[in-house]
Design the sequence.
């Protein structure tokens, strides 16, 4: 299957550079100069991945990413953010807005293609494990669904982004074990591209926020100086 990628970039030379390299890599690529055009293009069919520039005329890429994450139809759309901002706080803001990964301008076309491939791989459910359960959390890798099933209550679905889903799946397949940021980067992102360890913290924060309405965020624990784990017996109440 050929993956469709929508590039939202207002600088024609950069958009063309991305278009050429992704097309040569075997992807079907479309371009939009601003977010309202991209929105119209996604009306009938969603792309498999969105490459979104931070600075755009009219609505910024950050604001657009937030709107996509708040919409049920586009909640799980993989987003790769392009940014000329290299400060850590700016990168964190991009991830907090809903981006799954980011690339800082100027970028290497080879790195961009590698990150696109890695992000698309992370969208494929891992089906080696059967249904998983930790506390009230239930995860079915076949249907890609996560439920909160408290005693004497109706199971309720928990919507997760693709990266948060994979983190939770990895945690639930390895309960009570402490996982360092470096280990999570290797298991969730793979070692073919460079991702900063701070990225892990952002996605853990996002995972906890998704679990919080169901009272399940306390099952994800921070082990100071070591990393993170999921536990069947959280100490927080």
Sequence:
């Amino acid at each position: 299957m050929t993956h469709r990628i929508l590039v939202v970039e207002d600088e024609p030379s950069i958009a063309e550079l991305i278009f050429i390299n992704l097309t040569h890599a075997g992807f079907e690529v479309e371009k939009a100069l601003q977010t309202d055009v991209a929105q119209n293009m996604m009306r009938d069919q969603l792309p498999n991945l969105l490459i979104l520039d931070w600075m755009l005329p009219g609505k910024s890429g950050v604001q657009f990413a937030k709107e996509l994450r708040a919409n049920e139809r586009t909640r799980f759309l993989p987003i790769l953010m392009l940014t000329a901002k290299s400060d850590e706080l700016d990168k964190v803001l991009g991830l907090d807005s809903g981006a799954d990964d980011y690339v800082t301008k100027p970028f290497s076309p080879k790195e961009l293609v590698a990150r696109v491939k890695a992000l698309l791989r992370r969208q494929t459910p891992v089906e080696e494990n059967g249904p998983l359960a930790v506390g009230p959390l239930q995860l079915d890798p076949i249907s890609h669904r996560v439920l909160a099933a408290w005693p004497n209550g109706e199971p309720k679905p928990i919507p997760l982004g693709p990266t948060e889903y994979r983190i939770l799946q990895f945690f639930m397949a390895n309960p009570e074990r402490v996982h360092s940021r470096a280990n999570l980067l290797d298991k969730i992102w793979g070692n073919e591209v460079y991702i900063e360890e701070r990225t892990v913290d952002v996605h853990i924060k996002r995972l906890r926020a998704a679990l919080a309405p169901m009272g399940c965020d306390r099952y994800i624990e921070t082990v100071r100086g070591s990393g993170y784990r999921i536990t069947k017996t959280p100490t927080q109440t």
Observations:
- The chain is about 35% helix and 20% strand.
- The longest strand covers residues 4-8.
- The CA atoms of residues 69 and 75 lie 4 Å apart.
